[in-house]
Design goal:
Elements: H1 5-17, E1 22-24, H2 39-46, E2 53-58, H3 72-85, E3 90-93, H4 107-115, H5 121-136, E4 139-141, E5 147-149, H6 157-167, E6 172-174, H7 182-194
Parallel strand pairs: 1-2, 2-3, 4-6
Antiparallel strand pairs: 4-5
Helix pairs in contact: 1-2
InterPro entries: Amidohydro-rel, Aro_Compnd_Degr_Hydrolases, Metal_Hydrolase
Pfam families: Amidohydro_2
GO molecular function: hydrolase activity
Length: about 200
């Protein structure tokens, strides 16, 4: 869900009441002028108690003040989100193709944002691979190549079955191959630029 955090509660609560899981995009999009002091951001943190809301830590640049182009605000927001939701309900997104920020942003910077608040590699793996796979009911491979089924759609098994029947196959992620170094990032950027 891509909506400013000030409007989030009015939209999320009916979805939760209907039994749906919700993914909130871009740190919840707090007001850049007040950041984590935004009342809507505090309400987002309270939604963690539902156990049915996830947050994408993506596009930090969409939440910062133009006059201060550092990642302080994103790191501060991430600290609160991690404390409220835990790493198992946070996921990363590249926000490619970085619309309106194409000249300023790339995969390298987007991934670097994870290194400071998630210094432990296992936590990065959870945010980059495990959580999205669990949420979508996909299959992961562990570092030894063994399949690990993780259907975790909380009340939506029929939707997962419908997706699988439409696609004709299971979606499989190799979680041992998640992005770990800049050479993989450069390869992705080269692909995305030629796409």
């Amino acid at each position: 869900m891509h909506v400013e955090v000030a409007r989030l509660q009015d939209i999320v609560e009916p979805l939760l009441d209907a039994g749906m899981n919700v993914v909130v995009d871009h740190f919840g999009r707090p007001d850049p002028d007040i950041g984590v002091r935004d009342v809507g951001f505090r309400r987002l943190l309270e939604l963690a108690d539902t156990q049915r809301v996830w947050v994408k830590i993506s596009a930090a640049y969409r939440n910062r003040r133009q006059l201060r182009p550092d990642d302080h605000d994103a790191h501060e927001a991430f600290h609160f989100l991690k404390a409220a939701f835990g790493v198992h309900r946070l996921m990363w997104g590249s926000d490619w193709p970085h619309t309106q920020f194409e000249a300023d942003e790339d995969f390298t910077h987007a991934l670097e944002l994870l290194r400071a608040p998630l210094p432990v590699e296992e936590e990065r793996r959870v945010v980059l691979a495990d959580t999205p796979a669990r949420l979508t009911g996909s299959t992961l491979r562990d570092s030894h190549g063994a399949l690990q089924r993780q259907h975790w759609l909380n009340g939506l098994p029929s939707r997962a079955a419908a997706i699988r029947s439409q696609c004709g196959h299971e979606h499989t992620f190799d979680s041992s191959a998640w992005i770990t170094d800049n050479s993989q990032i450069r390869k992705m950027e080269g692909w995305s630029q030629s796409w």
